Amino acid sequence: MTETDDPSQFEPSRWYWTAPYIAMVVFALSMLALVGLLQTRELETQRNAVARDVQWAEQTMRLHMQGTEEFLGQLARDLSAEALDSDAFQLRANQHIANNGELVNIVWVGDDSVVRWSAPFDTTDWLSGESLSVLQSGVFHRARDEGRITYGEAYMTPRGVTVLEVYVPIRRGREFRGVIVGVYSIERIVRHLVPGWFAEKYRLALQNVRGETLAVNSMLKDLDESVAFEIPLDPPGNGLVLRATAFRTTGELPQSLPTILIVGLSITVFWSLWMLRTHVQRRVQVEKERDRLFNLSLDMLCVVGLDGTFKRCNPAFERILGYPPAELPGTPMLDIVHREEVAATLEQLRLLASGQTVKYENRCLCADGSYKWLVWSINPVRTEKLVYAVAHDITGRKAAEEALRAESAFRKAMEDSVITGLRAIDLTGRIMYVNSAFCRMVGFEEGELIGAKAPFPYWPSEEIETCSRNLELTLAGRAPASGFEMRIRRKNGERLDARFYLSPLIDLAGHQTGWMASVTDITEPKRVRAALEAAHERFEAVLDGLDAAVFVSDARTDEILFANRAFKAIHGFDAVGRTVRGVAVPQPERGDYRVDPRSLTVGDLPRELFDGELQHPLSGRWYHVREHATRWVDGRVVRMGIATDITDRKQTAEISRQQEERLERTARLITMGEMASTLAHELNQPLAAIANYCAGCVTRMQSGSSKPEDLLAAMQKASFQAERAGKIIRRIREFVRKSEPRRSAVHISDVLDDAIGFAEIDSRRLGIRLEVEVAPDLPAVFADRIMIEQVVLNLVRNGLEAMKDVLPEERTLVVRARDFGPHSVEVAVIDRGHGISEEDRAKLFTPFYTTKAEGMGMGLNICRSIIEFHDGRLIVDVNPEGGTIFSFTLPTEAASERVARRA
After folding, report:
1. pTM reported for the whole predicted model
2. Could you say which of 534, 627, 660, 850 has the lowest number of CB atoms within 10 Å?
3. Which domain, by its residues, includes 508?
């Protein structure tokens, strides 16, 4: 016998495999004994649990009922104190019923056993005015006699509902006033007064004293009668019993089933151990092969726990990421993930936790601080609480994809951003590409155009022949470099003009694959160009139709850029291109411009340069010239001038002025002629007085009895009368003298004194009082003194003539002067005459219109011209006291100076 055949050598191995079998036999016997013990104890535990649960349910029901008793007692006390009306009873009762689902009615029954109030209002079981039944009357009387809360026996109503009633007596002192009745639904008690978990475990039933089941919370029949418990329900008592029976949670299994299972499992374990022995030997060989593959793989292989930490990594981690495999176990997988990829990686790990296989890409941190793209394929093994992962380095592929994606996005962005339509056709004329701008232009979708052949959908029916000819030229390579101008049709039928520019489409190999067309919508440019041409023609027609000469010149070089027909007719048809001064255009000197046009910039525009009248240096004709600085079409600053020939107007104005001056002087002469007799009488008095004083002096001197002081007094009086006569003559000479208007600062009081001095002669003759009212401290006015005297005298004489027929006591003419605003003075002549009608007032200032039989009709018209010459206004109003008010305004000297400075 050899050494290898010695049985003693196999003893350790034999005992190594025999020990598990022995242990399994002991374990099986122990389990059989333990199963029997556990079954007995489990039954006792279930019975104790149901007893506790039923007692808890009974206490819960009792508490709810006691709460209802307290509420009914409060209602009874309020009714006893007469502090509760029907509406309040309904509100409080309905609210309590809504909060307590086991209650169906709350009723007040009077001391005569008749229902008074009931809630809810729409109940049909307890109607106001009904009497209690015999069964209810017994409980009613018991509650009345005992004076405490009394429960009746459960009974079934005519509607088939089993109810339980509680009666709460109402007493006021010793007086019995009825009861408050709370009506419980037995079915609702068992359904609403226990929680949902209780109903899931037990069938709860209420039984009466006869053992009859009144209500149950479940109709399931699968009950375990061995696990049941019952307890009296108090309140309400009366033999009510609460019984709970556990539902059967498992199917009916034989008591021997655990024993059979234990024996069967033991046999299975024995067989498994035998198979395990064979399997272990095979597994050792497989693990060696798996470890060899794990360590030699070029991809990253790892085992990760469900908590996300590495358990084992292969050497590829060090080659790709730079981490030694021995350092990674225990490291969270998220520590090597790029922070921007953490959220997506967490989402994938959640899927792994649910047992799903995942495959995703992310960036991972290398040991040197750089990042690499990895694609992970991970399979979870939930039984082992591990996941097995394979990662492949795709950094190079990602870089190529990113570059390609960026280039594609850039090209797409370019195509979508351009407003020029792009269309490509192959060598047969079939459309193979259109961009979004072209689709927007024609209104067709890309799918409707790609693959289309002639005639294309955007060709108008009336232009098919032209479009076909252009397509043939394109395919033949004879398209003009300037492109085609074609009319195309939108999908909605609208027509538009477009220009097609054609070029060969060359592929990467250098071969032509078709023709590329860039399409531009020229509908609006054509319309704008046509509108501009029409507007230009209208503009030139308007300017050429003007009588005024219009020109535009460069502000710096003075070169004429534009001139209308009237300008060319005056200065020559070759004026454009020459300078303004070279063609002798009437224009102001440089100093007359408001600003120097040569210094203006575009930011200063527009700007008024000059507005005035100039005389042509050669022809002597007068022109009204206006020059305006503006911006020319090319952006430079230009002067636009408009010269209107006003020679005829100037001549007419001069003639009119001369005639008006003559007429004005004539009017003064006429006025003086009318006053001649009165003036003669006026002068006769001082002249007679002078003669008398002189004669008296001569007589005294001849008699020799004269004294020097007497002669001096007489000669002084004669001198005063001579001065008076001279003053009258001087006024007349100044008044009728022809002179140019001279405006200066004059005091209106002085003007009124001189004018009133003339008018007093007529006023005394007619018996009319003249009253002058001049406000103190009036500012000086800027006027011609003689002209204003003429106006005042004319208005005063008109007023005197208007009052010659009124009563003597009303013959008063008032001349008033006062301030009229901060910069004017108003003079008013107020008479009490016969007045002027509305019709006459409308024509009052019309030349040659007069209301006097012997008048010329020019006085008021001349007066208005004089006042307007002085920048004032002459108006006529009705005097509220009767008569007419003529008033005019004159500017003060300060106001005239400001106007002069602004000019």
Report:
1. 0.32
2. 534
3. 410-526
